[in-house]
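Office hours follow-up: a student asked to see two folded examples consecutively, so here they are.
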Amino acid sequence: MYDIYGLGNALVDTEYLVKDSFLRTHGIDKGHMTLVEEEVIYNLSLALDGHEPKRISGGSAANSMYAAQGFGARTFYSCKVAHDEVGEHFLADLSGAGVAVNGNARGDDGVSGRCLILVTPDAERSMNTFLGISTQLSVADIDEGALATSGYYYVEGYLSSNESSLAAAVACRELAERNGVKTCVSLSDPSMVTFFRDGLENILGNGVDQLFCNEEEALAWAGTDRLDIALAELKDIARTCNVTLGAKGSLCISNGEQKQVPGTPVKAVDTNGAGDIYAGAYLALVAQGADPVDATRFANYAASQLVTFVGARLHTVEDYATLKKGFKA
């Protein structure tokens, strides 16, 4: 029924352009994702009064499913939102793009999750995330029929931070394994590797089909400053592994062969969502029959186009199809 079944948090992003001094003043860890309480989001919003915000639905795996759908894949997403304006905005964005969503996505109480993203002049993004009702994402939110009839199961490493969502991620992997569905995992952020490694190890189980991470996450996972050592360890985790290297492109390690695929030179404005569109682009193409290296080339290109403007997604779902048509392999 579906090419890719995604599981992850449901967040609505509010993005601001700020100077590095703002991060220092408010003690924000630059370039990382930090889990915060709703009060922190409120106080930061007050401090940002006068800055022009940009609001768009987000959540790492949700961004990837949105992209994959736009690139021609059939996708499903399991998540949890509240009966509030933020949650309705999130669901409307996904359904408008054609992404199917679990029927019980709306919870009975609580507030929907949101993320305040601060982008500095060097295009680096620092995320302050209040998960809200997303912490209630559970095994009950799994659509077993949709997952069992999908080609790939994709999960964000952010779910390792919460007991309920972690249980759902592990249950999905186990169901995928029983039904021959390929499991794909993103490490998501260095903070997940540092503070929630046990949860990530549970999500990965005895190994997965596909792993996505960036260089910093790879080094953190292996506890080293040498990428070759980190790659050797990642090869034991996943049959295929993609490691993004920023402007240098990315590494694709598949069937024992390692290839560095160069990136597309651009002037980056905002790196928020680059890893998400990369994963969505890669999975959409392999689901449509591309080999891993060709899919990596397209993923590099898609990420390079996204970072040239502010926001974690392209403006419309149709823009993804246009981007794909303009790609020269």
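And the second, which I mentioned at the end of office hours:
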Amino acid sequence: MSYADTILPEFDQEMASTRKVLERIPDDKLEWKAHPKSRTIGWNANHLVELPGWVEGTLTHSSFDVAPVDGEPYETPRLASRKAILEVFDQNVASARKALKSVSDAAMKENWSLLQGGKPLMTMPRSAVIRSFVLNHCIHHRAHLCVYLRLNDIPVPGMYGPSGDEPPM
């Protein structure tokens, strides 16, 4: 079984669950945050949009520098509506899925590095990057959004079964 055959079912489920959460975000709550030290709903939503967008670059390049010495630092997108968030998320998921389907198993064993100013922040095999830096990272920020939805009395969608806002199966 190929790497794609093993990861795509999980990827598809997690992206579908993430989309369900993003669909619940009202445009008028994008600037809401739970605490002065917290990020906003909009920042978390935009971060969730960019995470699947990192897959293709991870699979086609050996590294990514978030703050290149001679270039502009990377910035999280600043999409200002649920509609725009969902459109870009769907594009990034489709691109990621295509990249995952076409990558060789050998390439998944190769190391990839996240750099800052040319210095490695982390280096690990691409397969581990997809699992931790994309999927686990997505689940982490999706959980933030679920708490933010709950704190704003917005029904939380079920993901691994019904949520407290949905009837039991």
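Two things to take away from it. The mean pLDDT is 96. The two ends are 33 Å apart (CA to CA).
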